[in-house]
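Bug report (template v2)

What were you trying to do?
Predict the complex of my protein with iron/sulfur cluster.

What happened?
Run completed; filing so the output is reviewed.

Input:
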Amino acid sequence: MRLVSYLRGEAFQRGIHPPEEKHTAALPIRRLPFPPRVVVPLMQHIGKASRALVRVGDEVVRGQRIAEASDWLSVPHHAPLTGRVEAVGLRPSARGPWQEAIVIRAYPSATQQDLAGKPQDLEAMSRAQLIEAIRDTGMVGLGGAAFPTHAKFSVPAGAEVHTLVVNGCECEPYLTCDHRIMLERSEWLLAGIRYAMRATGARRAIIGIEDNKADAHAAIGAAIARLGTIPEGEIHAELVPTKYPQGSEKMLLMALFGAEIPAGQLPLALGMVVSNVGTLASLGELLPAGRGLTERVVTIAGSGVKRPGNYLVPIGTPISWLLEYAGAPEAKAKEVILGGPMMGQAVASLDAPITKGVSGVLVLSAQELARREKAKVYPCIKCGECVESCPMGLNPSMLGMLAARREYETMESDYHLFECFECGCCTYVCPSYIPLVQQFRVAKQILRERKLAAAR
Ligand code: SF4
Ligand code: SF4
């Protein structure tokens, strides 16, 4: 399939250009001091919760496996700290409901080196063994989706993958962790891409980078040149015009190839697999060492933070600890957003931990919050702005009206509600401040619950 990005001179249809606010882009990744305690939820990914392997009182070393996968769509978890298991039980999650988690209290004198990993010979591994090794790292999509990486890279019998698409768009305002990873960890990224190509059988990898990160494109281009010829195939870095929500798989494939993923299907339908740069750079670091995922890069930003930046954060670090270190100790839960301002959600409790899928923590001022969550909602004036902005070609205005009338089944059957991937463009442009995307989330949840009840 031919690349079309700059040949077409446009990205994908519709979408928006919110203010970028990427003030942390020039700040190198720094390690956050280890917190005195971490909370490792057993459910940090799409799929089934993992099973705890430790009990209260057990001593654990950093990198040790503390939870095992419970089925194929599940991953193990590893101790982010050397210390003692203080509790295994329910703890608050960022979204509200309490979840089963392992609480570890750090030994203050421990060096916190990861000594649990065992170097492994990846060259000698078959594709199936490589998938198993990826699963052993506990890796999930670090771009926010948190889908188990080994499951994504497992190509079903009869299917074929020719292209690995590497997502380096990072189109959400404020977030810059992927940008810094591309600049500072390009060798690990290329190593991870090669493992992913071997695991999926792809002979070509295309790294899609938005043109507001030209320095990352140049750094990766130089790293590809240093790498030279590789047995796995070819790796290219491609610029795409900056536009939100290009970081979504559908939009990125449209921007790079002019190719549309059929409704309800995955990139696999086009012979492609999409993975984020942070995920692949972590794989490139962890796989050869036989280590598990114990930390990730998180952007901390927003005008409520005195020391914004990109921090290397142990998984399970309480948000409150992060905010204290970054200079926002007085932040209230309603001002703190996990992820970007477009798709992220306000946290329910600052005691909740950073999990594998969290790419950003934003502390927004009252003014920034007002831009995101308008207090007063006016009636729809049928201006059509939301229709013009929807990258999926949906009719958010009609969906909003149906949601208000609680006609959820019609939203699904006639207006393709489940094609909405909650990018928030329609809400952003609506002059009446109608919380469209919030209404769509609720409608989907109600429909899912009704279907479950009917199945029972
Ligand atoms: S309807 Fe869904 S996909 Fe379309 S703009 Fe709104 S949130 Fe995005
Ligand atoms: S943007 Fe808002 S006011 Fe305009 S048509 Fe859509 S829902 Fe109505």
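What did the reviewer find?
The mean pLDDT is 92. The first strand starts at residue 29 and ends at 31.
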